[in-house]
Amino acid sequence: MKKEPGKPRVVTTKTVTTMKQTGEKITMLTAYDFLVAKYLDQVGIDIILVGDSLGNVVHGYATTLPVTVDDMIYHAKAVKRAVRNALIVVDMPFMSFQSSTDDAIRNAGRIMKEVGVGAVKLEGGSYIAEIVKHLVKIGIPVMGHLGLTPQAINKFGTYEVRAQTKEEGDELLHDAKVLAEAGVFAIVLEKIPSDLAKRVTKAVRVPTIGIGAGPHCDGQVLVVYDMLGLTEEFKPRFVRRYAELAETMRTPFRGYISDVRTGRFPTGKESYWPWPGQRGPASGKKTGATPPGFGPVARHSI
Ligand code: KIV
Q1: Domain membership of residue 232 as a residue range
Q2: Exactly one of 24, 114, 160, 190 is catalytic; which is it?
Q3: What is the pLDDT of residues 139-154, one digit of tens each?
C-alpha cells in the first residue's frame, strides 16, 4: 500500500517489499526506549530497529558483543509499547544465533513471542543462509546485514569501509544474493562503497537499506543518537547530524545545577507547600495537594 500524505500506514515486511517495487524510499532509525519510539512512530518512520548498537550508546560498552538476548527483549518491549504503525525489527545479538539453528530458533522465537515484533535482524553472509531459511520457514521474518558487521569487529580489527577491493565486493554481492535466496525480506548494507551498494541494490529483489552505503540503496538507516548529536565524538562522514542534543542537554543541566545551588529553584509556584484546605500564599488557591509522605502522587499529577 502506497503511503497517502498525512495518513499513517501500518508497515509490514510486505509493505517494505512493495516500497522497493514502487521506488518509494524506506526510512529506518534505531530506538531503544518508549519515548524515542513514540516520537519516531508519530512522525511516520517506516521501520524502527532495536539495534544492538544499544550496547554502545545506551549501555556504554566498547563493542556490541556483550549485549544479550535479555537486553534486546527488555529494550524491545519498551519500544513495542509505543509503536502503532512502524515495523519493529530487533537485532539478534552476538552468539544468539551463530552457534546452531536450534539456538537461532529458540532466541528469535523468544524475541517474537515475548515482545511481539515484526522481524529480527542477523549479521552475516552466506554462512548464515541455512539459519535464515529455517527462521523464515517457521514464520520469523529476517533482515540481513552485510558490510561492516560490528559483531565481527574482532575478526577485522577496525571499523573502516568494507569491501573496497573487487574480490571483496564480488563476495559481498554473492552473499547478498544468497541471503535473498534464503528468504531475507531486506538487507542492511553498512559502510561499503556507494557503487557496490548500487550493484547489490540492482541485483537483489529485496530492498537494501544503507548506512554509510551511499544514495542508491532502497532506504537509509542511522543510529538515532548519532543523528541527534548525542554521540558527539562519533563523526563518520555518513552521519548527518539533524540536531546537537549533547549541548542542548548540557545547557539545561547547567541551568538546573545553578538554580538549585543558588536557591532559584524551586519557587513557591513550583512547590506544594500548602496543606489541603489551606490557602497557599504563592498561588492564593486551594491546591488540595497531598503533603509529602501522605500517599502516592501519580507521575502525571500537576
Ligand atoms: O545495531 C544497529 O543499530 C545497527 C544499525 C547500525 C544498522 O545494526
Answers
A1: 13-243
A2: 190
A3: 999 999 999 999 999 9
